[in-house]
């Protein structure tokens, strides 16, 4: 048995996906790490599914929210009630293997390490890497890339951003940097939060030994109008909030990205996607409405 181990608060947000969340809880039940607190934040829940979730993780704490708080709001609700020395945020569409907790903890070798994400692999193709770090966001395009490979040697890799699907963060870092920004509702919030960590002098790492499986885009769909809207709106909002001037990005977005995306949706007869893109563009650039929006 591991001695002198810190308490880890695992937080996951459920939104009308009880079956998927139960699959995650079942994988957590098999972990051998001795000091875990598992919190399920159930967004937009009128009933109480505590008994269901506890069939898969006996000691799960369930926090019901009658309102859909989004990704950030749901995680923040869990963080505020967590007792752990570290919080581990996990998407409900992930599954873990035994040993991951210990591998992530081993990467916190100094107090200036603010967050550690595992390598994320696709659930359906577990030999394929979805995430092993991020590149920096380009100041003109407002885009960055997922790193899909890892070096043959080394235990960790530095990254400018962590991945919101799976990240371990010391509680004192959150106390210092604040909670996850909630105005995005979906997408870009972990990038904004990561930037805040870095600005406070913390380093973000990817643990190359730890791995997790991700059933990507179950909640919003791989190419849904909802995803198009939030990624468009929040991309603009994120870039407008950076220290550098947003003028190069806005010029690129208006002159190149906007016509390209509109023509693409028209060519594919994706009229709902086109509407979502236009609304996201308008809300991000002009109206700047943030939080939840019906699409």
Task: Describe it.
- The chain has helices at residues 18-29, 50-54, 70-80, 100-105, 171-177, 189-199, 225-240, 247-267, 271-287, and strands at residues 8-14, 36-42, 61-64, 86-90, 94-96, 113-122, 129-131, 156-158, 166-170, 203-214.
- It folds into 2 domains: 8-214, Alpha-Beta Complex (Spore Coat Polysaccharide Biosynthesis Protein SpsA, Chain A), CATH 3.90.550; 225-287.
- The protein is an alpha/beta fold and 295 residues long.
- The chain has a 5-stranded mixed β-sheet with strand order 3-2-1-4-9, with helices on both faces. Strands 5, 6, 7, 8 and 10 form a 5-stranded mixed β-sheet that branches.
- The N and C termini lie far apart (50 Å).
- It is built from 9 helices and 10 strands.
- 36% of the residues lie in helices and 20% in strands.
- It is globular.
Estimated structural class: alpha/beta
CATH class of the largest domain: Alpha Beta
Low-pLDDT residue spans: none
- At CATH level 3, the topology of the largest domain is Spore Coat Polysaccharide Biosynthesis Protein SpsA, Chain A
Strand proportion, as a percent range, falls in: 15-25%
Inertia-based shape? globular
Please give the count of helices. 9
